[in-house]
Write a structure and sequence with these properties.
- The chain has 2 domains: 151 residues, P-loop containing nucleotide triphosphate hydrolases (Rossmann fold, 3-Layer(aba) Sandwich); 80 residues, no CATH class.
- Helix 7 links the parallel strand 5 and strand 6.
- By secondary structure, the chain is of the alpha/beta class.
- The two termini are 33 Å apart.
- Helix content is 39%, strand content 14%.
- A 6-stranded mixed sheet has the order 4-5-6-1-7-8, with helices on both faces.
- Bound molecules: adenosine-5'-triphosphate (ATP) and magnesium ion.
- The site of adenosine-5'-triphosphate (ATP) has 10 residues, from helix 1.
- This is ABC transporter ATP-binding protein.
């Protein structure tokens, strides 16, 4: 079983990390939260709404957005066009109205551009807006994914390994960005293997192993837990919290 008997609760406004070895079930957990997978049993609640059984777009409309472990971008579209895709939930114009070029479409397009620009600014991508995503270095592509998720104005943001493939400078900038996003009032669920980042940025952590909860607690508690050290962290290293 990919996940079994996993239970946890995230308070609004927290940065909550989910860690654990490869194959522990972290991405599967995200896929269940977003409605990509439907759990065979159990319940996932967000702000009083039951999410199990809802289609992905309904879950997104409740205020949950995500990034992907493997980049899911339109590489031949520009940065801002990719981010505008993230705004469509907030847009009023349907596909038909847009296809028929009915009045209001251009106004709506301007609004989408404004929303996307705000997300780009928060992610320090303003000067890249017009470039094709495929021409960016990898670290910036990962930022475009975050900007696209933010363009939907989520209340809960799921980040799946945002630091994977980043160098030290980019990881430091990511840490700063995650803190900045939280400061705007967004709750963050963070899946990440980069322990210095996780331990310094998170309020609490959930440790998964073989699809089950191994531990839950603050960064200091998790680092002192012998089961977590044995299953995942290894000995000897202490991360700043
Ligand atoms: N659609 C699927 N069908 C069958 N098995 C799956 C599916 N998706 C994931 N799994 C399996 O479920 C387990 C958990 O996978 P998952 O991708 O959630 O791990 P993870 O914790 O995100 O690992 P990583 O750190 O490597 O990203 C793995 O054994 C994986 O092979
Ligand atoms: Mg994963």
């Amino acid at each position: 079983m990919a996940l079994a008997g996993v239970g946890f609760q995230v308070s609004e406004g927290l940065i909550y990390a989910v860690i654990g070895p490869n194959g522990a079930g972290k991405t599967t957990l995200f896929n269940n939260l977003c409605g990509f997978y439907r759990p065979s049993a159990g319940s996932i609640r967000f702000d009083g709404h039951e999410l199990c059984g809802l289609p992905t777009h309904r879950i997104a409309a409740l205020g949950i957005a995500r990034t992907f472990q493997n980049l899911q971008l339109f590489f031949n579209m520009t940065v801002i066009e990719n981010v505008m895709v993230g705004c469509h939930l907030r847009a009023k114009t349907g596909l038909l109205t847009a296809a028929l070029r009915l009045p209001g479409v251009r106004r709506e397009e301007r609004r989408l551009r404004e929303w996307a620009s705000e997300a780009l600014e928060l992610c320090d991508l303003t000067d890249r807006a017009g470039q094709p995503v495929g021409s960016l270095p990898y670290g910036l592509m990962k930022r475009v994914e975050i900007a696209r998720a933010l363009a939907a104005r989520p209340r809960l943001l799921l980040l799946d390994e945002p630091a994977a493939g980043l160098n030290d400078t980019e990881t430091g900038a990511l840490r700063e960005l995650i803190a900045r996003i939280r400061a705007t009032g967004v709750t963050i669920l963070l899946v990440e293997h980069h322990m210095p980042l996780v331990m310094s940025v998170s309020d609490r952590l959930l440790v998964l192993d073989y699809g089950s909860v191994l531990a839950e607690g603050t960064p200091a508690e998790i680092q002192a837990d012998p089961r977590v050290v044995a299953a995942y962290l290894g000995g000897a290293v202490q991360y700043a919290v």
